[in-house]
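Exercise 7.
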Amino acid sequence: MTKTVTVRAMIVDPRPLFCEAVRACLAKGGYVVLSCAQNLNEAMRQTDSLHPDVVIVGPHFMEEGLILCREMTQNLPVLKVVLFTKHADETLFQADAAYAGVSACLRPETTDDELLAAIAKIMTGEQLFSHEILSLAFQPIKLTARELLSFA
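Solution. The predicted structure, written as tokens, is:
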């Protein structure tokens, strides 16, 4: 007998239409949606109190999205985060996202099936970033000679 684990999700985006579309998609996949936070403070409060398994961050936060992802994953290290962004295919953005604790970057045009497949993969611990992206994200910082002198 196998035990079925219900994945608990939270959606973060200021636009109700995005939240409702993702909520409907997640319901098709059998996920339980705990809430839809519409701002960063609400998202942090709800993450701390609800302890979701996965958070879907919508594309309407711009650079604040990575800040939110970093704070959420620092407070709840086991949290999986999917970030929707128009920069999903950019190497440096992916590296920044991985460093911020994001589990997957998806383009806003992602289909329901693609989102559900991405969540299924990250919930099993699969990494959706390439080894190249991960090594770029977590490489040691190299200081220039000028920077080294300023610390002397």
